[in-house]
Amino acid sequence: MLNTLLVLLVFQTIGEGVVYALALPIPGPVIGMLLLFICLIWKNDAADKLAPASSRLLSHMSLLFVPACVGIIVLGHRLADEWFPIVLAVVISTALALVVTALVVHKLKKGD
Amino acid sequence: MVSSLNTIWVYLAGSPLLWLTATLLAYRIAGWLYEKSGHSPLANPVAISVAILVAVLLITGTPYATYFHGAQFVHLLLGPATVALAIPLYQQLEKLKRNWFALLAGALAGGAIASASAMVIAWLLGASHVTVLSLASKSVTSPIAMGISEKIGGLPTLTVVMVMLTGVFGAGVGHYLFRWLKIGDDSTCGFALGIAAHGVGTARAFQLSEQMGAFAGLGMGMCGVLTAVLLPLMLKLFGYL
Predict the structure, then answer these.
(1) B-chain residues within 8 Å CB-CB of A89?
(2) H helices within B61-85, ranges in order?
(3) How far is CA B14 from CA A71, A73, A96, B19, in A?
(4) Less Cβ around it within 10 Å: N or C end of chain B?
(5) Pair B167, A65: CB distance under 8 Å
């Protein structure tokens, strides 16, 4: 558990460093994920050691979004004026994106 | 007695501990409701937790900054959790290698339609220029979305609200849309959830299966990176910037 957390934090820190050094428009954790992924391919027995604790963390990923989402309380008033176009745009575009992505992948992928 | 209770409340309400506890408690209640509803995708634990916490903050008159002071310990774990997405993704490596072309095509098509349709609809309905630009990155995970929004002249704070609405809505309806399309494959559905509904969709996918979650994480990452690189270029190309 502690080892896994340490590995994740180390990769996140490297990711943040890379993003800062290269002025990338991508968040550090995403780069950290990419680097860890590459390391797992290179050292392929590591995934089994990291899997139990990481899957426990990921099963509660929903919780981690709660604090940021509560921020709607501060910004809610901005929504008041333009709520109709915003809600309609979000609803329709999100449904379209789900359908289009699923259809494209479904048509092009090669079996299971 | 009442005044001493009040003193205790004032003391606790200002401490990070109370709001950290409240966040976990709200999430537990939301999880319980989600179980009770028979795992209905409409009973999204994020949406319910947020509704409970917003109500509590409004009733107690607690500022968001005070709340976040405690809740930041939960928020902080988003970074390591994002890094951890590499592990389930690695476990799907074979599938990834076989279908990289389908996934890349899906990411480009889905990401483009998410941005373009949101902007066009808001513009047609008379939304302001800033609102339209803030909507452009709404399918992207919030840290990337804020950066993009700032770069193209949107309002990062407004973008975050739209990102969250998108995530909660996408995670809620995905299930029904996939059933309607008669697409039942975990990797395809997960990937679409990640592309259209970023981390909230990914969290939802992990509740259903590890494989779905892995592909959702991949979709979220690809949508974020592709949008960050291509959206500013596209807007410039169309003369919108």
Answers:
(1) 117-119, 121-122, 125, 127, 135
(2) 64-75, 78-84
(3) 18, 18, 44, 9
(4) N
(5) yes
> Does B1 score more than 70 pLDDT?
no
* Length of chain B, in residues: 241
ipTM score for this prediction? 0.89
Q: Does A19 touch chain B (CB under 8 A)?
A: no
- Burial code (b: 16+ CB inside 10 Å, e: under 16) for B171-201 equals bbbbbebbeebebebbbbbbbbbbbbbbbbb
Q: Collect all residues with Cβ–Cβ distance below 8 Å to A13 and sequence separation of at least 6.
A: A28, A32
Dihedral, CA of residue B103, residue B106, residue B112 and residue B113, to nearest 10? -150
Reported as a single tens digit per residue, the pLDDT across B52-75 is 999 999 999 999 999 999 999 998
Interface test mutation site (partner A, options B87, B134, B140, B160, max chain A beta carbons within 10 A): B87
* CB-based contacts of A93, cutoff 8 Å, min separation 6: B113, B114, B115, B117, B118, B121, B135, B138, B139, B166
Residues of B in contact with A91 (CB under 8 A): 169
Closest to B78 in 3D by CA, of A102, A12, A42: A12
Alpha-carbon distances, residue B24 vs B17, B29, B164, B208 (angstroms): 11, 9, 19, 21
Which of A26, A40, A90 lies at the smallest CB-CB distance from B118?
A90
List CB contacts of B118: < 8 A, sequence separation 6 or more.
A89, A90, A92, A93, B135, B136, B138, B139
pTM for the structure as a whole: 0.83
